[in-house]
Amino acid sequence: MARFRLRFLLQEFDLPRGTTVIGRSLDCNLTIEDPLVSREHARLVIDDNGERVEDMESRNGVRVNGVQIHGPTRLNDGDRVRIGTQDFVFCRVDPTGKAHSRTTGVLRLCAKCRLPYPREAPSCPSCEATEQTDEETLSGAFGTTNQTAWSVQLLVEALERALSLGRTADAERIARRATAQVEELLMSGGSIDPKGLAALALQAAAATVATNDPTWLLWVIDVYGRIDRVPPLEVVDRLGDAASSHVGVVRGKLEAMLQRLGASARSASSGDVEALARLERMRRLFEEEATAPSEVTGEWPRPS
Predict the structure, then answer these.
(1) Can you give the pLDDT at residue 100?
(2) Radius of gyration (C-alpha) of the chain in whole angstroms
(3) 266: helix, strand or coil
(4) Rounded to whole angstroms, how far apart are CA atoms 235 and 218?
(5) 135 confidence band (pLDDT: 50, 70, 90)
(6) Is this model's pTM higher than 0.85 or not?
(7) In Å, how far from its chain's centre is CA 294?
């Protein structure tokens, strides 16, 4: 008879026939001490009808291979299951394999390196820290380009949720982690997924609007210039909305980006040409605002 396991980082958990409940509650078969995981988040069922996973009406949902599920979903060997913001791999194992994994367990989150580890361990096996975190935490940094892209995707989704809930402090913390991971990827010579970068750029611009802090907006403008890529139209429009209150600090960065992207215009697609045109109109508008006297007071406007 086939046996199945759930792999989570370096841990493996046997999945017995029947139902395995995963959540934050200690009453679950597998407990994850992460506030972004609901008390009873998901169930995995193994019976004569096959292997499947179900969302138990959790806050953050369940995804299989990146797609959010909306009902019992069949699992295959190697499928990636996301419980809230934690990644698991569903594995079919050799029936004669050694039973060295467990059927229950509790995972803590390290306050230093942000990686989960077994609750019974005296310290984090990754960095040897002994502190755990009660903050809303995501799965940690990854080593390969594909894994980094996946991690950034999780952070973007968490950032969007924090902003929708008005939790600006959490949003800024998540934005710092996401942008830092992109910077690490660039420094290592890795390539950036355009769609993933656009998704992060949209949420970073939204973070500037929510916090009135131009840091995230300036980072978006700077990173697109450094990688010599024209931002998509939706990103350009969001940049314009976010920059309206920070003309003084944005104008120079915008000019530098347009200078870097000037050569790209020769081989740009129609969408890139329109995006560059909108950026140029934005630059001219900002220049006019910076040089025109105020209609109300006659004074020169101060940079935001």
Answers:
(1) 42
(2) 23
(3) helix
(4) 13
(5) very low
(6) no
(7) 41
Phi, psi of 203 (to 5 degrees): -75, -30
The string of DSSP letters for 159-178 reads: HHHHHHTT-HHHHHHHHHHH
Read off the amino acid at residue 120. E
In angstroms, the CA 129 to CA 71 distance is 39
* Strand, helix or coil for residue 94: coil
Whether the pLDDT of residue 218 is over 80: the answer is yes
Q: Dump pLDDT digits (tens) for 153-200.
A: 777 888 888 898 888 888 888 888 888 878 878 887 777 788 889 999
Specify the DSSP class assigned to residue 130. -
- Find all residues with CB under 8 Å of 79, minimum gap 6, and list them: 64, 65, 89, 90
Q: 30: part of which helix (H) or strand (E)?
A: strand 30-32
- For residues 110 and 55, give the distance between their C-alpha atoms in angstroms, rounded to a whole number: 26
Task: Find out whether 154 and 138 touch, Cβ atoms under 8 Å.
Answer: yes
CB crowding 169-198: b at 16 or more within 10 Å, else e = ebbbbbbebbbebbeebeeeeeebbeebbb
